[in-house]
Design a protein that fits this description.
Elements: H1 2-20, E1 25-26, H2 36-41, H3 71-84, E2 93-98, H4 99-111, E3 120-124, H5 131-137, E4 144-149, E5 159-164, E6 183-188, E7 207-211, H6 212-215, E8 223-228, H7 231-245, H8 250-268, H9 279-298, E9 304-305, E10 311-313, E11 320-322, E12 327-332, H10 339-345, E13 348-349, E14 351-352, E15 362-366, H11 371-387
Parallel strand pairs: 1-13, 3-4, 3-5, 5-6, 6-7
Antiparallel strand pairs: 2-8, 7-8, 9-12, 10-11, 12-15, 14-15
Bound molecules: 4'-deoxy-4'-aminopyridoxal-5'-phosphate (PMP).
Amino acid sequence: MNEVRVAKDVFHGVQNLSRATDQYINLDHGDPTMYEVYWKQMGDRTTLVLSGWQSISYFSDTKNHCWFLEPSFANAVTKLHNLVGNAQTRSYHIVVGTGSTQLFQAALYALCPSNAPEPMSIVSAAPFYSSYPLIIDCLKSGLYKWKGDASKFNKGEPYIELVTSPNNPDGSIRQAVVNGSGGILVHDLAYYWPQYTPISFQADHDIMLFTVSKSTGHAGIRIGWALVKDKEVAKKMTKFIEISSIGVSKDSQLRAAKILDVIADTYEHTEKFDKVKPFFHYGNNEMARRWRQLRSAVNKGQTFSLPDFPVEKCNFSGQRFGTQPAFAWLKCEKAVNDCESFLRKHKILTRSGTQFGSSKRYVRISLISHKEEYDEFIQRLSLLSSMDT
Ligand code: PMP
């Protein structure tokens, strides 16, 4: 009786699946539209009115080595890090960029000697963020060259290692893997925020990159920042941004400042935010819910598997939880050896493991899209999982 029922359910499931698969679900990009609902709830609290006379000058603060850095944005960044406790700010220099994508290039420009006989090797442990090789080799620079997986790197030459933690795509908490002398580290901490992972220590690396794209969900305002220990490196990074885009949008910095300040306010002035959860608590709950849904879908069969994450105490929230990354690093087991093509056949668009220096058995799936899209994805995945290929 039960078996008949299961068979019927699966049959109806397949029918539903073919109906639902009329449309593609695109979870290839890490577009953080999940956060729209939260910011809508906030109403006008983050509204900023800018008049035509504002943001006229190229300059923001001529006393600062980073002369295009808006002081209100710098203050908001410092305040937020101090509140969350995820990074040291005292005695660091802040450099603002058009997304952390620009800052990453600025860091490479600043760190690579201009007169070296060979381009500097840039490495990152696989699976690495798929944009690194594209950005690094795009202009075929004489300064640097992508050398792939850091764990296979021959330490005999100078290098820069990119350490992404939590890592995009697999969510792992990382440290440098190359143990050579003459190496320089750049820490990409885009996801070191309490909605994604426990804040277990205050990071104090030489160069740390952050972005509003993944911290607040405002990818479209294109603002990132670097915390840089060495003043000369910060100055050179500033030079790169001066040469490549003569600074960074003031309007965007002012918007970002407003949003970061409101986040801090949701903790410091809770009385002003009736019925609206503090920002990181909202994000943490939402990510936890999405990961529960995903694990339950995957556990319906043997077709897929997911990485596990150790549970730790978060010094910010006081809660214990495991990393709940912005992306799922999904593995197709058994018969399915090209996971991206398999899911694409079922109209779920993901990014193949091959783009991250890994195997096509893996795909990266964004978990930070609109709720409706995510729920639809979970339904399709549950059916695929229970059908067992
Ligand atoms: N680093 C990592 C690890 C990322 O995942 C992303 C965004 N996908 C970036 C940098 C780039 O962020 P931004 O939008 O600020 O350029």
